[in-house]
Write a structure and sequence with these properties.
This protein is of the alpha+beta class. The chain has helices at about 1-10, 20-25, 110-120, 120-145, 150-170, 180-190, 190-205, 220-225, and strands at about 30-35, 40, 50-55, 60-65, 70-75, 95-100, 100-110, 175, 210, 215, 240-245, 250. Helices cover about 40% and strands about 20% of the residues. Strand 9 (about 210) and strand 10 form a beta hairpin. The longest helix has 27 residues, at about 120-145.
Length: about 260
């Protein structure tokens, strides 16, 4: 039940579902799996027969160079389906690894194919989610290649604020982000030394606090400005772009944004 509700919560951000479609998702035979931090969930070269949705924890998609350097190409939060592409691309071209202790819900590809064949709107929702992941990836290319170190981190924090709020269906000005500085370096394309210095600079602005895996946003508008951030690429409904700040609801979108 928890797995289907998590999947429905994500789909609700993407399409409007009928009662019949909701019932079909609730009938999916999910298999629950607990994975420890740093566990390989799917590896490059694997041929998965199922896909999973994250119920708890953080998961990373990554690629390694021949010399062993790692690039985290996507960070996934509860509600995401990181390996949905394996439904149509049989051989994995990347690694999918648990960043933290995770609870995952697997569903067989045959079950997903039947669901998509019988309920085209669910197919549309899953496809739309995959397209949004591609949009997030495009934005990350711009972030790494054309923003300063401080702006890269600020942009990443803005994005994670919105995504964790949207998937958790909560309006809040804080969120968990239990990443090491090595993780942040692999996400932003910086060295760990550069990440450390940039975090210190970001904290010095008093726009955020980041301690013990928790981020608290103090000055949202200032963080948006530093990050050159516009959430349009996340393609979320307006109601998902709101947080609680100082006891008041406030739009996450910058003025003139989506």
């Amino acid at each position: 039940m928890i797995a289907s509700e998590r999947m429905l919560s994500k789909l609700d951000l993407l399409v409007e579902l009928t009662d019949k479609e909701r019932t079909a998702v609730q009938a999916l035979p999910f298999r629950i799996s607990r994975q420890p931090a740093k566990a390989d969930i799917v590896r490059e070269g694997d041929w998965p027969s199922s896909s999973f949705i994250i119920l708890e924890g953080f998961v990373a998609t990554s690629k390694n160079t021949g010399e062993g350097a790692r690039a985290i190409t996507a960070l996934h939060v509860p509600g995401d389906m990181p390996d949905l592409m394996s439904l149509h691309l049989p051989e994995m071209d990347c690694d999918v690894r648990a960043i933290t202790n995770c609870v995952l819900a697997f569903v067989e590809h045959d079950q997903l194919r039947t669901l998509c064949r019988e309920y085209p709107r669910l197919l549309h929702g899953l496809w739309k989610g995959t397209l949004i992941e591609a949009a997030v990836y495009r934005e990350s290319v711009v972030n790494i290649g054309h923003r300063s170190a401080l702006a890269r981190l600020a942009h990443f924090f803005c994005e994670m604020m919105i995504r964790t709020n949207a998937n958790q269906r909560k309006a809040r000005a804080h969120f968990p982000l239990p990443l090491t500085q090595t993780d942040l370096a692999d996400i932003t394309g910086m060295s760990t030394v550069h990440v450390n210095r940039s975090l210190q600079s970001l904290r010095a602005t008093n726009a955020i606090s980041y301690d013990q895996g928790q981020v608290i946003i103090h000055r949202w508008e200032e963080l948006l400005s530093m990050a050159d951030f516009n959430p349009a690429y996340l393609h979320l409904p307006e109601e998902a772009l709101t947080i609680g700040t100082d006891g008041h609801l406030k739009s996450l979108a910058p003025k003139g944004g989506a």
